[in-house]
Amino acid sequence: MGCLFSRKSKGKKRDAAAEEEPKQYSWDKREKINVKDYMLVGLTDQTLGRLPGKVAGEQFVIQECKNCNIYIFDHSATITIDDCTNCRIFLGPIKGSVFFRDCVDCKCVVACQQFRARDCRKMDIFLCCTTQPIIESSTGMKFGCFQYYYPELGYQFKDAGLSIFNNNWSNIHDFTPVADENNWTLLPEDATPQGYVPLPDSEELKSVRISTELNRSIVPVARGQRPKSSEELCLVVFFAGDYTTANARKLIDEMATKDFALVQTKEISMRPDDAKRVFTEKAADFIPLLQQGPVVALEFNGDGAVEACLDIVSSVFSATKVFVSDSKSSASQDVDNFFNFADIQMGM
Question: N or C terminus: which one in the chain shows less Cβ crowding within 10 Å?
Fold first, then answer.
């Protein structure tokens, strides 16, 4: 009897001990983050950065660096860059905002949801920005269109929730304008990122297979608010499907070989009422397609743009339903209808 009693007592003690042990939750099992892995602070005359997969959507800080080449080849949540001087910086897709403060003589390639610069001077920026870029108390700011490629970059855009077609790189808002002065301008048309932010020369970072060629850029290189070469415009809209992005890229390439300029692009969801306002009498043909997902719109410029678009769409995309402006006379209104709608939807 005594032995039986002893076993029961031990069993009760083990049960009690188990009840006292703290529960293990999934977040308790995650690897602890070392914040120093996501910071570059107080560096001078160095080439350094992070390879694909090393930031993986975390926040990042760059601070008080001088004469450095910095490359963040990954997507992140937000990035702040403070008090940097004479640095060349590449920043992969940023899900939220990038904020430059008190930076001087920096040259950057940046993709982000929101761009902010405050108290900065003499900065050259190749930009992809979903929303309207904002500068404040800054001078000598120059902007160009994001133009970059490496194999992981397209996936990083998706991980950051950014569309390669939503890029307001040239639509800058200056919170602190000065009468008779311009705090920002556009970079020369022939400017390329490699001329401003050189490819990395460190052994580690050279493993990233980079190209800055225009026709390989993940983000379509568009003219934005640069002056147009012709009064003729053309709107083309692709509807959601398995090959929407590939089809849009194919048309951009085809039009480029004929020397037509891509002015702007947009990816956005539409409702039936939106389609009626934008596509007018043709809306009934496209409303059933809107349920499949967002549309991708392209604006082209150049004499003969409408005819060229119609020819390419009919020959290359004959099995795909695509909206194309009917004529030169209606195309400008098509462009205004669509992009005015898109700007309102995106809060521009």
Answer: N
pLDDT at 11 over 60: no
Residue pair 254/322 in contact (Cβ under 8 Å)? The answer is no
| Predicted structure pTM score | 0.89
118 and 100 Cβ atoms separated by less than 8 Å: yes
Could you give the 3-state DSSP secondary structure of residue 154?
helix
Look at residues 290, 273, 284, 282 and name the one whose alpha carbon lies nearest to residue 344.
Answer: 273
Contact 249, 154 (CB under 8 A): no
Residue with tokens 């009422």: 273
| CA 347 vs CA 21, 136, 217, 339, 342: distances in Å | 52, 20, 27, 12, 8
SS3 226: coil
Q: What is the largest CA-CA distance in the chain?
A: 104
Pairing of strands 134-136, 121-129: unpaired
Q: Could you tell me if 57 and 76 are in contact, meaning their C-beta atoms sit under 8 angstroms apart?
A: yes
Residue with tokens 């309102």: 344
- At 84, is the secondary structure helix, strand, or coil? coil
Amino acid at 145: C
Helix, strand, or coil here: 167? coil
> For residues 63 and 84, is the Cβ–Cβ distance under 8 A?
yes
pLDDT in tens, 291-338: 999 999 999 999 999 999 999 999 999 889 999 999 999 999 999 999
H helix runs in the chain, sequence order: 2-20, 153-159, 244-257, 272-279, 283-286, 305-316, 328-345
